[in-house]
Structure formats: C-alpha cells, structure tokens
Amino acid sequence: MKLDFFKNEAGGDTFQAGHTIFVEGEMGFEMFVVLDGEVELQINGKVVETLGPGEPFGEMALIDQAPRVATAIAKTDCRLLSIPEKRFLFMVSAMPHFSLQIMRVMADRLRTMNARN
Q: Which CATH superfamily is domain 4-116 in?
C-alpha cells in the first residue's frame, strides 16, 4: 500500500543495490518511504516482501518502540525518504489521514502474513 503524502518528495537518501538499510533486531528511530527503486524486507534471511515507490517500511519500530522485526536491503539502487521518530509522531497526531494510511499498511501486511501461514 502506497502513502500519497510523499509522492512529490524531491529529497531523500540514495542507497546502492545490496546495501543493508537496517537489520532485524536493532532498535529503530526512523521509518522510510521508498521514493525510487525497490527494497526487500527479510525475516530470518527469507524475503517476505518487496517494496516499491510510495511504500513505507520501518514504522513498527516507531509505534511499539521494540527492535526491528525485519532486515531491509536495497534490491535495486533506490532513493528513500527517512522520517525520524519525532516527525512521525507529529504526523500521526496532526494528520489523521496519515495515521489511517499507516494503519492500513499494517493491516495489509498482517493479512498477507496470515495468508502465508
């Protein structure tokens, strides 16, 4: 599920294909939105999802303040928008539509994981 809030974002950080963005088990203090390229999410070394432009990841660590549940690796050269925890919390409190989109992303991922099991 894509977030429409960032579709015209000009900034972002560039990562080369194969670069590890974050590692399962580490604490997370930011989430990301793919602006260009693709990112793979892996759990225990197994690819569980491939994300493209407009798709967020890493939000769970900001919501539950627990270690990351997946490793994120750039599948292709990509450009990512980093959203620090403070900005994320502001957006959740000030922008109900953003909060709803994040909930939909999480619900979609939960349904996908349940369907696989």
A: Jelly Rolls (2.60.120.10)
